[in-house]
Amino acid sequence: MSIVIIEDDVRVASFLERGLKSEGFLVQTCADGKGAIDLVLQVQPAVIILDRMLPNIDGIELCSRMRARGIKAKILILSALNEVQDRVLGLNSGADDYLGKPFAFEELLARIHVLSKRDQFAQVDNIVHFGELAYDKSALQVSRSGKIIKLTAKELQMLDFLMSQPGKVFSRERILANVWGMNTDPLTNVVDVYVRRLRRKIDEDYTKKYIHTYRGHGYSLNDVAPDAAIQ
Asked: What are the tens digits of pLDDT across the range 15-48?
């Protein structure tokens, strides 16, 4: 997952960058508000960590401008200005969260995880969302970034099973039993065949991959590929 840090304090920015990179995040930093919007539009991060007291432009104003430009990344304001009115001002400017300085890195990390998952898996009416994927169970229709993906009945059933628990690794045997039934030959390679089909239809045209193979363990639907995943 990609994070942009907009922070003019070199020590704080360096501390955040090192800590977040050690947690597996892709991190870009910007020292002022002047080039921040261009960087965010280029990187398209999932989360932005934004300091309030920046040179050239106040963080509150920058937050408002980013929202006006259609930037939908989660914004966490990090500031020494931490009175109630400061937090309210930040949230009203379009921020998703506000954390006062000094802060514990563990709390910041927890807030980032919450923000990153807030829209990742949500069900509205009968539509299940995972990242850019949307599965309308009523219409039996799947789309990614608004583009309709044509799936066969079995492909749809398999995707539905993977979407039931995002991030969980399912063994071939469990997928086989749930999608094809308990009496299916356990030596068949039908699961691998259908994973390739789903991957071709869902992931092939996109940089971010959702369907991951775990050697010796099975398959998972996840928007972050761990080191153990085989693309």
From this structure: 999 999 988 888 999 988 878 988 898 888 889 9
Residues 164, 221: contact at Cβ < 8 Å?
A: no
Tokens 């927890």 locate to: 110
Based on the number of CB atoms within 10 Å of its own CB, is 7 exposed (0-12), middle (13-18) or buried (19 or more)?
Answer: buried
Residues 6+ apart with CB under 8 A from 84: none
Residue 17 contacts residue 5 (beta carbons within 8 Å): yes
Phi-psi region of 170 (alpha: psi -120 to 50; beta: other; left: phi over 0): beta
Cα four-point dihedral sign 134, 135, 140, 143: positive
Q: Look up residue 133 and give its two tokens.
A: 């994927």
- Rounded (10°) angle between helices 153-163 and 172-179: 120
Total-model pTM: 0.54
Burial class (CB in 10 A: 0-12, 13-18, 19+), 199: middle
Q: How would DSSP label each residue in 127-153?
A: EEEETTEEEETTTTEEEETTEEE---H
Q: In what order do the strands lie in the sheet with 127-130?
A: 121-124, 127-130, 133-136, 141-144, 147-149
Domains of the chain as residue ranges with CATH: 2-118 (3.40.50.2300), 121-230 (1.10.10.10)
Spatial separation of the C-alpha atoms in residues 197 and 21, rounded to whole Å: 33
Beta carbons of 47 and 3 less than 8 angstroms apart: yes
